[in-house]
Amino acid sequence: MGVFGSGLHRLCAVVAAATAGLAARQVRRALKQTSTVELRLDWLRSDGERARFLRWLKKSAPRSAVFLATCRRKEGGGKFSGDVAGELFWLMQAREAGCRWCDVEIETLRRLPNRSVRGYAVPPKVLLSVHDFDRTPAFPRRVAMPDLGEADAVKIAAAAHTIGDSLRLLRLARHSKNFVAVPMGEAGLPARVLALREGSALAYAPVAEATAPGQIAFEEMKHLYRAHQLTRRTRVYGVIGDPIGHSLSPLLHNTGFVARHIDAVYLPFLVHKLRDFLEAVPELGIRGFSVTLPHKQSIRKHLQGCDPLAEAIGAVNTVVVRRDGSLRGSNTDYVGVLRALEKRIKLAGSRVLVFGAGGAARAAAFALHRAGATVVICARREEAARALARAAGGDTVPRRALRTEYFDVIVNATPVGMHPRPGVSPLAANELNCRVVMDLIYRPQQTQLLKMAARRGIVTVSGVEMFLAQGFAQWEVFTGRRAPEAVMRRTILRALAAKESRS
Predict the structure, then answer these.
(1) What tens digit of pLDDT does each residue of 98-133 get?
(2) Which residues are known to be catalytic?
(3) How many domains would you assign to the chain?
(4) Given strand 351-355, what is the order of strands in its sheet?
(5) Which residue in 80, 91, 152, 498 has its CB near the most CB atoms, within 10 A?
(6) How many secondary structure helices (H) and strands (E) does the chain include?
(7) Consecutive H or E run containing 403
(8) CATH of the domain at 401
(9) What is the rounded CA–CA span in Å between residue 62 and residue 65?
(10) Angle, nearest 10°, between helix axes 47-60 and 20-31?
């Protein structure tokens, strides 16, 4: 057991608000979920708000809770505009209010006699913090406690620009005692979830506004990723892409794991370079991963095996890591396209336009051709369109001809119109001469393209239907079990509705 206890006690809720009232409400929310809470006193907008909040804390907070007080100065990356004396004053007030721990930046210690806060009436337990918002420095094998007992635990928070950066912090957690590893930034997000598993004494998650790059909301950290329950036996899966923040795949797959009581977690990996991710696969114990833009085709050269359909399509969206570490690829986008469209139209004998020539377009073209449709490709890169048409047994059409051509179905297989730029359409209204329009984009559900089609009386198919169908198939490839489709579908549709109501 570590300095902060075990299990859920190591999941630390971050309270950060401008007013005492808001901070108090966040504390009450946090204590319903965990007993360990960081209080960001520097986020309170004035000394008066800090004083009011600490009076409330002293009077109302349960003594069983573990409060960690932080009043980080701007020099250390916080919001407190006062000097070292002001920081120490508020930490001393926090002790009076019942805080057992304080977080003190290394910049503060360097300004104190003997480089220690032990002579001040701050909370008795000291977490020494080191922040680097620019990079992940080179580290020794382990971090030892300061020789003179200036701290009870050490935290290093560093900007992770690659997955390799975040792994260096996890290695420190693995080999150090009373150490807190905090990879910052989107590339470090998976390591934040796995930090407790690797030995970090704490993992931070905000109950409201994020206070550092790459933070995950407390509700997600606890209930979606179950960070406090993960062990070395937990199977790790994920999705790789660039960008990846929009992906609902973690919600889809983790919902399935929870419903089927499977000890597994699915994480979003921001991958700029495939080599960076692939080198992390053995160390993180990754058992399989989904592949999205822009890696669906480039991943193929790293595979040791590929099913014939994915080989023919030339794009892979699902990779399983075998026991010997080799990678085998397959493609479930194919299933998604067919299941989504077959509910609306008989594909055999129909004429279908696939707009685009990337990985998703290839899966759609092959699926439609095998279902008996006549496939026509149109893409900005005409040579890529011709190559796909040859491979899928179809034909091509130039963009300028779309206003006079008629199709039974038009499928958008480009990312144009995807969140966070949902207000644009890849095609103009006068190019939509068809019975059905399907957009492979699933966020937003109703893209600008689909809205235009609906106004023209055309049947529309949201990309969420393909996303769900391919995701169910993928989940079954990973687990070897039947996907709990109803609960997975319900969760995704609810999440999409919530996101769209906020936008």
Answers:
(1) 999 999 999 999 999 888 898 899 999 999 999 999
(2) 296
(3) 3
(4) 395-396, 374-378, 351-355, 407-412, 434-439, 459-461
(5) 91
(6) 16, 20
(7) none
(8) 3.40.50.720
(9) 6
(10) 40
